[in-house]
Amino acid sequence: MTIGILGGMGPLATVDFYRKVIDATPAGADQDHVPVVVWADPTVPDRSAALTGRGPDPTPWLVRGAHRLEALGAQVIATPCNTAHAFLDAVRASVRVPMPDMIAETVAEIRACHPDVTSVGLLATTGTLRAELYQHALEAAGLRTVVPTTLTQEEAVTGAIRRVKAGEVGADPVCLIERAAGELAARGAGLLVAGCTELPLLLGEMSAGLKVVDPTAVLARTTVRKALALPVMPVE
Predict the structure, then answer these.
(1) Quick check: helix, strand or coil at residue 77?
(2) Which of 37, 124, 199, 236 sees the fewest Cβ atoms within 10 Å?
(3) CA–CA dist 61, 63 (Å, integer)
(4) Which helix (H) or strand (E) element contains residue 4?
(5) Per-residue confidence of the chain (236 residues) as pLDDT tens digits?
(6) Which residues touch 144 (CB under 8 Å, ≥6 apart)?
C-alpha cells in the first residue's frame, strides 16, 4: 500500500500534495498512515515550454522518476502536476503500477458533486490550456470550459504561478489569481478549477463568489483510496 509521489513540479506543490495525502488518510496514530516515497526532481524541464514548442520534452525525466519510485516499492504513483499529465501516457507504459489521472478524477468529481453546473472556469498553465487537457475531459462530460483572455492568462495566471514557484504565496499573487477568477465568473463560469498545483496555495474554497475545485486534493483522495485497497508490503 505504498504511495509514490512523482514531484518537484514545483517543490511547494509537492509539499501541498503530501499534506493533502495525510489529510485524506483515516488515521488515529502514526501506524495508520500510508507509507510514502517521494521523488522530487525540480530539474524536470518546464512542461508548458515543451507544449508550446519552447523547451525539451520532459518525458525522460518523468520516466526516470517513476522508475525510481517503483524500485523503492511504490504500488501507486501520483503525479501532482496538471501539465505533466500531457506526457503521462508514455510514463504509465514504462511502469507496472497504476498512475491515477487527476484530470479525469477532477471532472468526475465535478459531475458527481456539482450536477447543476454547466460551465467551468479553468485556471491553469498555458501549457495545460494549449494541450486542452481539461477542455477535452469537460466537453466529454457535457460541460463548457471558460478560460482567461490571453492578456489575463499571461499577466495574472502565469504571473501568480511564477510567484509561487519562486516561493511567494503572499498578497500579490493572491490578488493576481483573484483578478483572473473574477473575469471567469463575469463570463459565466459556474465554478472554478485550480488546474495548476501551485494555485491551491493561493485560492481558498471560494473565489469571486464561486466554488473552487482543487485537483490536488482530488488526486490525494484518489491515491489514498487506491493505496488502502492494496496489500501491506511485508518487512524483509
Answers:
(1) strand
(2) 236
(3) 5
(4) strand 3-7
(5) 899 999 999 999 999 999 999 999 999 999 999 999 999 999 999 999 999 999 999 999 999 999 999 999 999 999 999 999 999 999 999 999 999 999 999 999 999 999 999 999 999 999 999 999 999 999 999 999 999 999 999 999 999 999 999 999 999 999 999 999 999 999 999 999 999 999 999 999 999 999 999 999 999 999 999 999 987 777 77
(6) 118, 119, 120, 138
DSSP string, 134-164: HHHHHHHTT-EEE---HHHIIIIIHHHHHHH
**Active site positions, annotated:** 81, 196
* Overall size of the chain counted in residues: 236
All cell numbers assigned to 166: 519562486
Considering only CA atoms, which of 202, 227, 177, 185 is closest in space to residue 77? Answer: 227
The identity of residue 188, as a single letter, is: G
Strand order through the sheet with 3-7: 36-40, 3-7, 76-78
Sign of CA dihedral 27, 29, 32, 34: positive
Type of residue at 137: A
Residue 221 cell numbers, joined: 483522495
Pairwise CA distance, residues 39 & 41, whole Å: 6
Domains and CATH numbers, the chain: 3-101+218-229 (3.40.50.1860), 103-215 (3.40.50.1860)
